[in-house]
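Fold this: RNA polymerase sigma factor
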Amino acid sequence: MERPRSAALPQAVRDHLGRQLQAAYAGLITTPPPQRLLDLIAQLDGILAGEDSLSAAGFRQSLIEMLPGLRAFAISLTANETRADDLVQETLLKAWAKQEQFVPGTNLKAWLCTILRNQLYTEIRKRKREVEDADGAMAAQMTAPAAQEHGSDLRTVWQHIGRLPALQREALLLVGAQGLTYEAAAEVMGCEVGTVKSRVSRARALLADRLGMVSERALA
């Protein structure tokens, strides 16, 4: 087992790591969603045309706003854009069908990420695949979008993110990339807040080590 070393990471290293993570994730968020997801939103518009529901219209608009981040989260979990888009489509449909269960004023991003993650793990169980990616098999597929600046460096970051244990990777992306609080991430992952903090700490330590940042005193 890798020993957690994040507590010993200098703040400058943690800050630099956070900037690299945000930069790597930004390309996924700014990439336009595929047409089929936009078409799905249009279909929801069509449903609303027969209804006079301001609340439903507001919910649909919120889904549109959350779409880039939701798709980025799906891609980061699956390392496959086609599968990620399937996952997002199922998430949007389930969210639409269950919109009465969402409490206005609460964290919509966390709610959607929970639906997406549950869908993913349901599919994994059905296919009898391993939840943990201990061998880093997806690392070879985990690449940053070509349009990003400094693509080579960011692809390296993504490859190392892909080698993190699955649950640590999820926790790090939810907190460090999606910007969720530890409490919200714990709700998404269905675990204790302390567990999320531990997973994020371990993920940061492993990522910093593999990127050669632990010994970089120039960052201080």
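The chain is about 65% helix and 0% strand. Residues 1-7, 134-150, 216-220 have pLDDT under 50 and may be disordered.
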